[in-house]
Design a protein that fits this description.
The protein is an all-alpha fold. It has a single domain, classed as Fumarate Reductase Iron-sulfur Protein, Chain B, domain 2. The protein has seven helices and no strands. It is globular. The structure holds iron/sulfur cluster (2 copies).
Length: about 110
Amino acid sequence: MKDFGFTLSPSSAVSLDKVDSRLWHKLLETSPDAAVCISCGSCSASCPAARWSGMSIRKVLLALQRGQSVAPMLSCCMLCGKCTMVCPRGINTRKLILALCRICEKP
Ligand code: SF4
Ligand code: SF4
């Protein structure tokens, strides 16, 4: 293949008809407030683990809806609860993470 001095990023397109969203729907059964997230990013901005680990509730919720793995991000959470204090939608993100960890242990 000819080298043009740059590479194309893989497509980030997601076909919602094909994703496995079972974990997302399981989470909604125990934490229905996850559905009101507006992806504002306040949780990520306040997260002390975000800078060095990439942990982000916003990303976790989006990944779940896209059927992507979230376990590596969850393992970086220290359950400090800062994200819960800043969420403008009043989502109990700390409780949500705990519920998600339980679901991931017993899918
Ligand atoms: S702060 Fe709340 S509404 Fe904003 S992205 Fe995080 S969980 Fe969603
Ligand atoms: S509870 Fe977890 S995700 Fe939320 S701010 Fe603390 S380390 Fe970050």
